[in-house]
Amino acid sequence: MAEFDLIARIQARAARRDDVVLGIGDDAALLRVPPGRLLAVATDTLNAGVHFPEDTLPDAIGWKALAVNLSDLAAMGATPAWCTLALSLPEGDALWIERFLDGFLALATEHDVALVGGDTTRGPLSVCVTVHGFVDEGRALVRDGAREGDDVWISGTLGDAAAALSQWRAGGACEPSLRQRLDRPTPRLALGRALAGIASACIDVSDGLLADAGHLCAASGAGAELQLAALPASPALAALFTDETRHVLQAGGGDDYELCFTVAPAQRDAVLQAAHAAGTSVSRIGRIVGDAGVRAMLADGSAWTPPRHGYEHFR
Ligand code: ADP
Ligand code: MG
After folding, report:
1. Residue 213, class by beta-carbon neighbours within 10 Å (0-12 exposed, 13-18 middle, 19+ buried)?
2. DSSP secondary structure letter of residue 24
């Protein structure tokens, strides 16, 4: 199938919004930004074999390509509006594109995101999405606002996606609920919005909790002490892995797309109310300290050192 026919299929299925003056079909999209709001823009690329296993189904690739981008807007407390899609495809496979769009557009529809343009080329399978959203000036959740004494919180559960990846790499069957979390992460948009005005800093966890909490701390000029025992785990993760492996998956794994955020202790009730309103669970997992670096603590108060074999295995 030719590039033009693929684009026509995409155009036929793309949803519309009133603020899209001109969508797919011209040289550029024309979009109306609400007066007085800031435009929040984020881009992420997924490459086959690097960002998802080669056997990932096309609808999961579509879902995940948009989800990881929406997760970045969630971490800013922004509301998504539009996206573009740059596709590199090994062949013009109409069925593949339709299944890809099933996943991509299901998530787009859920969050009222219009696909307004993109690019379609031949090459190794790669999906690059750019999302655009809005946030009120002064209300964005940035990385650099954490202060010593703030609590550190995390949404949802950690480690499921890394667990699925480790099962896949070991050549065995993936536990379905874990694989679901690897293939179809949930961007925490409602929570991000609800945390505006409450959280002092926020980041989404894509590269692993310790790494991403480290980025937040470095930006804030602070450090953190996180309690491994407090890290929220799904029933499947808790049932299938030893504590030691679970800690490696949860602290270092990545692909979680949960929000890690900091809040002054006086605001604990406000956090729980925001989480309740957003329909997303949250857990308090540690606190911000003055010394730089992120330390993961065991229940006995000693600092945890990730086991080398574990880290190598999950790299
Ligand atoms: P140009 O050569 O002017 O860049 P293209 O032929 O690449 O135009 O694209 C034609 C139209 O189709 C443009 O509006 C572009 O944004 C849109 N488009 C191309 N590929 C995609 C895609 N994968 N998803 C959404 N829109 C696309
Ligand atoms: Mg083009």
Report:
1. buried
2. B
Nearest-CA residue for ligand 1 atom 27 is 118
pTM tops 0.85, yes or no: yes
The C-alpha R_g of the chain, in whole angstroms, comes to 20
DSSP assignment letter at 228: G
**Distance from Cα 120 to the centre of ligand 2, integer Å:** 7
Location of structure tokens 């090994």 = 90
Choose the residue to mutate in 22, 88, 119 for probing ligand 1, maximizing ligand atoms within 8 Å of C-beta.
119
Q: Spell 236-266 as b/e; 16+ CB within 10 A means b.
A: bbeeebeeebbbbbbbbbbbbbbbbbbbbee
Tokens of 292: 């730089």
What's the confidence (pLDDT) of residue 308?
A: 60
Closest ligand 1 atom number to CA of residue 28: 14
CA distance 30 to 47: 29
Q: Examine the pLDDT at 314 and tell me if it is beyond 70.
A: no
- DSSP-assigned letter for residue 304: P
